[in-house]
Amino acid sequence: MGKVYRDAQDALAGVLRDGMMIMSGGFGLCGIPSLLIGAIRESGVRDLTIVSNNAGIDDAGLGLLLQTRQVRKMISSYVGENATFARQFLAGELEIEFNPQGTLAERIRAGGAGIPAFYTKTGVGTAVAEGKPTAEFDGETYVQERGIVADLSIIHAWKGDEEGNLIYRRTARNFNPMMATAARMTVAQVEHLVQPGDLDPDHIVTPGIFVKRLVQVGPGFEKRIEQRTTRKKLMA
Amino acid sequence: MGKVYRDAQDALAGVLRDGMMIMSGGFGLCGIPSLLIGAIRESGVRDLTIVSNNAGIDDAGLGLLLQTRQVRKMISSYVGENATFARQFLAGELEIEFNPQGTLAERIRAGGAGIPAFYTKTGVGTAVAEGKPTAEFDGETYVQERGIVADLSIIHAWKGDEEGNLIYRRTARNFNPMMATAARMTVAQVEHLVQPGDLDPDHIVTPGIFVKRLVQVGPGFEKRIEQRTTRKKLMA
Amino acid sequence: MAWTRDQMAARAARELEDGFYVNLGIGIPTLVANHVPSNVNVQLQSENGMLGLGPFPYEGEEDADLINAGKQTITALPTSSYFSSADSFAMIRGGHIDLSILGALQVAANGDLANWMIPGKMVKGMGGAMDLVAGVKKVVVLMEHTAGGKPKLLKDCSLPLTGARVVDMVITELGVFTLARKGETAVTLIELAPEVTLEEITAKTEAPFTVALRNA
Amino acid sequence: MAWTRDQMAARAARELEDGFYVNLGIGIPTLVANHVPSNVNVQLQSENGMLGLGPFPYEGEEDADLINAGKQTITALPTSSYFSSADSFAMIRGGHIDLSILGALQVAANGDLANWMIPGKMVKGMGGAMDLVAGVKKVVVLMEHTAGGKPKLLKDCSLPLTGARVVDMVITELGVFTLARKGETAVTLIELAPEVTLEEITAKTEAPFTVALRNA
């Protein structure tokens, strides 16, 4: 099949170019394609437009690409956790397009589904709707939002097989499945590379058709926790 | 929780009324809510608008509601397997609105997702687009299609728990998951009623929020095959 | 005596009904989970893709793959399910969530809500707030009655809106108001916190309101 | 000598490339699966919600829950996956399927396709055909060259359209034509079946075409 690549650099070889639009999965630091982000950083590619719900934190996730000033524009719903972002934005070095989180998710889903535009109630009467067409349906006003298709999507999955079929674990699913469908090239990093047949076909969330390349993360792979919150065990 | 009902009659009690719109899951006879269709037939409710990809065959599936003339209108993509349908249609007793299968699936998905309208390339330049708004996006023409929300959805699933979480088996999934989301009341028949925690939360296709009532099929439950096609075993 | 944050959360919890699916915002709304009556079964939704949120994990049992919309580590329940962000907001936008309880910077008499940006300050983004207020069946705001001594329940919002005519109820440390999302603007004071006077709450509220106190 | 149905299917199979995802229509197109070259790996999609279609089951091993879009019992492969009809058509509409091979009643010179209804006859519905021709990257029509002695590759379709300007290639028992979906109408005869003459195919074709025969 030839979808499996040796490492992240290899998996992105020939794909990266300056000025391209990249979708990057994850919510906060949960389910982010950290290896692939690292490889993009190493490649030195610049002027990127990044579609991602968040912008990582200063020293992890997309924060790594902000540090190196490889990002020109972010399309996101919330970037509060990143001081580098704030500094570059206030200095006018970084552009941001805020989308309501659900509108962002749906725009990506629409892009992958061949839907160029849809209507939503979200944002009607707010700054988000300014300059966009509105329409009435059954007496309610809705705003038109556009589907997005990127040049490249980088995503993270729990398990993947050689055909590119993917499953996700818990809330690390988030934006990854839609982004897998909404780019001309989708590269996935998986925690566990398995053989075709190892995944129950009823459980596959992303069918292999959407995944062009995949790479297994190495043994030292670390998943960071952004807000470690716990409760105390009561003594019996 | 109180979502589990004793039988199909019980699960539909107080829900049925003349003239209502009902979505009915399944593709051909695969994954159809046969028990619930039977209970609707017994109820005698009339003038129904049914949203379903197909119309069953003469003596199974929605064909049972056509026999008793309980259906006023079908919104479907293909009704070729049903002679009762053809007879009633030609006699002017039955209305049909044909939708391309993917447009039908997406209209239902949109209805459940709070999207009143979307644009698609499907049907542009054909009879399907007549009378509907069109728009250009990036130089291509698209037709506007509307989301659908029904009064009731009846669906079939493989396993369900008391919370209403559902999983489907193989191609019996088809229209069931979207229909579960697109009605004011969704009633599911499940082949196996299991306890909360028995379904892996990563495998759940329909979260319980969408399912208001469910009923387990009985021991004599039969799944019919419409086109039994086989190949011969070669002798070794 | 004005309500404490916990008492405000407890008051908001009285809006929960058995079988409700509920989304709780960050801050005081999170506390509502501690006050769910024992005879009421609710499932909490987190917009990052989970239904059936459990409590925080015990120390050492945190899972990087299991967080809520505030990015805090949480746990699952036997009823839990996971789904994508598109499916999560389809659920929200499609009107399947019964109740959303969230904070606010300002609420206007007509139900307008502002809670995502203050011009001149760094803008962090609206996250899922605009989708929640547009999509959820009932929206309850849980907020301090004033900020820096100035009323937050106003004739009109001066800050950029999160949603237009989206708030059904406002709960503050001083009392509870209902608002009309449709038709004529109608703010009604329905409860006062113990020992809070009508004079005090009127002085601290810019939006005109009628009074129809219910037995709390 | 005109091609047999199997030879037509074999010719269509030569449009398959390694790694392609393919949707095959009912009828002759189904036969294409029997002619996939051994060095070409393709995955078949069925619009009722499956990728990775296997062959028909052995007798006694039929599964009512496992059918193709023609409602025939089939089997799965180790690569298979299942999904909903909405996800299936998102895949189709979104341009993720490389090739669709389907039958036709009429094809026009500009690529218009009619294959779903004949006015006056009972209308059965278009099923997924309109979505497939609108969404799939390359559309190949596999059809008899004539019906009742009348050409089916026409100047204009007289039957209601399934799609406007959607056909890239037409394969009949007499030869192979390419069509242009965009810009100027351009029908080109690129192959003739063995012993079929240019005169014969011209006589049986209403659409004007140019000839640029390739070595078959």
Automatic annotation (TrEMBL), chains A, B:
Q: Which keywords label this protein? A: Membrane, Transferase, Transmembrane, Transmembrane helix
Instruction: Output the Pfam families linked to this UniProt entry.
Output: CoA_trans (PF01144)
Indicate yes or no for the key word Transmembrane helix.
Answer: yes
Membrane keyword on record: yes
| Transmembrane region(s) | 20-40
Q: Name one GO molecular function term.
A: transferase activity
Q: Which SMART domains does UniProt cross-reference here?
A: CoA_trans
Entries under NCBIfam families matching the protein:
pcaI_scoA_fam
Spell out the protein name for this chain.
CoA transferase subunit A
The lineage, from the top, is: Bacteria, Pseudomonadati, Pseudomonadota, Alphaproteobacteria, Acetobacterales
UniProtKB/TrEMBL annotation, chains C, D:
Q: Which GO MF terms does the UniProt record name?
A: transferase activity
Highest taxon listed in the record's lineage: Bacteria
InterPro entries to which the protein is assigned, alphabetical: 3-oxoacid_CoA-transf_B, CoA_trans_fam_I, NagB/RpiA_transferase-like
Q: Which SMART domains match?
A: CoA_trans
Alphabetically list the UniProt keywords: Transferase
Q: Which Gene3D superfamilies match?
A: Glutaconate Coenzyme A-transferase (3.40.1080.10)
Family per similarity comment: Belongs to the 3-oxoacid CoA-transferase subunit B family.
The protein depicted here goes by the name CoA transferase subunit B
